[in-house]
Specification:
The protein is of the alpha+beta class. It has 6 helices and 9 strands, in the order E-E-E-E-H-H-H-H-E-E-E-H-E-E-H. It has one domain: Lambda Exonuclease, Chain A, CATH 3.90.320. Helix 2 crosses helix 3, helix 3 crosses helix 4 and helix 5 packs across helix 6.
Length: 238
């Protein structure tokens, strides 16, 4: 299979255990319980009238079905892409179900369009935390367009506009800041590699002044989370 990427890391990555609780997912980082990036985003998210209107239009049951299908498709696509990055080939992968076949097509589109810009991968699904603030798993860490970057693969039912994916950018900067804190790096770039079900590839890169601005906004969200959720004690052990 083409698109073989150098998979080698100058850093030693360790995995952290996690636990899902009613208030969200928490990671045990050396004995400290820290909320996940996605939990913070969920708790600090503003009301989205567009999503509410969509649910009202299609109905709760249909909305749940669409979201579940998207989640399964996204999981399958991530598996395929990670397998290609880590193993360098997909010769033994045989998609069976319609969902798996669709995910395979979408993964191949990302490999064709996005992988040529990835020079090296340090790790996939890397556990990271920012001391006493938050934790989570970065999809991909490596070199994108010649610079260290956090990368994420996303599936979508239809093409997205940049202004619709602010949470994706928050995730990128959150993991970059955590990696910088843990390993003394200076990652200031992130990339979203996205494919829709109709095989429309999109790429969103965040860097420079935008990266700094989104980083500042993200840290404000972290402060907001801790101010509003005093039940989460960073010293509490899972």
């Amino acid at each position: 299979m083409k698109h073989v990427i150098k998979y080698e890391s100058p850093y030693t990555y360790n995995d952290f255990t996690s636990e899902d609780r009613p208030e969200g997912r928490f990671y045990d980082c050396h004995g400290h319980k820290l909320p996940s990036v996605t939990s913070i985003l969920s708790k600090t998210k503003e009301d989205n009238d567009g999503i509410k209107q969509w649910i009202e239009r299609v109905g709760e049951e249909e909305a749940n079905r669409i979201r579940q299908e998207a989640a399964i498709r996204g999981t399958n696509m991530h598996y395929i892409l990670e397998k290609q990055i880590v193993n360098g080939n997909l010769w033994d992968y045989r998609p069976d179900s319609p969902d798996e076949k669709q995910a395979y097509k979408m993964a191949c589109k990302i490999m064709d369009e996005g992988f040529p810009r990835i020079g090296q991968v340090y790790g996939c699904e890397v556990s990271l935390f920012n001391t006493d603030k938050y934790a989570g798993k970065a999809d991909v860490i490596g070199i994108f367009e010649g610079q260290p970057a956090i990368m994420d693969f996303k599936q979508t039912n239809k093409p997205k506009r940049r202004e619709w994916i602010q949470d994706y950018f928050y995730q990128l900067v959150a993991y970059a800041l955590a990696h910088n804190a843990m390993y003394g790096t200076d990652i200031q770039k992130g990339a979203i590699l996205m494919c829709s079900v109709d095989l429309n590839y999109q790429e969103f890169v965040i860097q420079g002044d935008e990266f700094k601005r989104v980083s500042e906004d993200w840290l404000k969200k972290v402060d907001q989370y801790w101010a509003e959720n005093i039940f989460t004690d960073p010293n509490e052990k899972i």
